[in-house]
Amino acid sequence: MPDPITRPDSALTPGHLIRRLHQISTRIFTERTHAAGFDLTPVQFIALDTLRENVGIDQASLANAIAKDRATLGAVADRLEQKGLVTRVVNPRDKRARELELTQKGREVVEAMQPIVMSLQSDILPGLTPDEYQTFIHLAAKAAQAAD
After folding, report:
1. 71, 86, 116, 128 - which has most CB atoms within 10 Å?
2. In degrees rounded to 5, what are phi and psi of residue 69?
3. What domains does the chain contain, in order, with CATH numbers?
């Protein structure tokens, strides 16, 4: 019988645990949304959902809102545009800026995905009681806000 594997102390560091939870979150999101017939990444979904809540937002503001750099957001916007979920329009106040708008299809997709995405949230953090879940959300939001 092989010796049990010993985990190093670094396996319990915030960085490693956050990375691991990100992997779990992405896997569960992808499995559930693909099973429901949708082909969006978590970043694409949050971009669409943020556009739904912020009509007429420009690409730079959207990148900031979802904590992505402008280049990454540009690639996300390209893919969403190719899928027919968003359109880009020139900002009338700043010809260099592009505003993103949800298409009707984009609105329908984000609205159809919303209940699926909300229902999988507790599965991302298995083993936590409802109180522990709320504490985790509070602490993670506090740390993220402080880092910004």
Report:
1. 86
2. -75, 160
3. 13-147 (1.10.10.10)
Using CA atoms, how far apart are residues 3 and 43, in angstroms rounded to an integer?
Answer: 40
CA-angle at 110, arms to 61 and 83, nearest 5°: 80
Residue-wise pLDDT for 4-26, tens only, equals: 666 677 777 899 999 999 999 99
Neighbours of 77 (CB within 10 A): 22
Structure tokens at 9: 């102390």
CA angle, residues 21, 27, 31, in degrees to nearest 5: 150
Separation between Cα atoms, residue 71 and residue 56, nearest integer Å: 19
In the chain, alpha helices (H): 14-35, 42-53, 59-65, 70-82, 104-124, 130-147
Distance CA 144, CA 63 (A): 16
Q: How far apart are CA 110 and CA 50, in angstroms?
A: 10
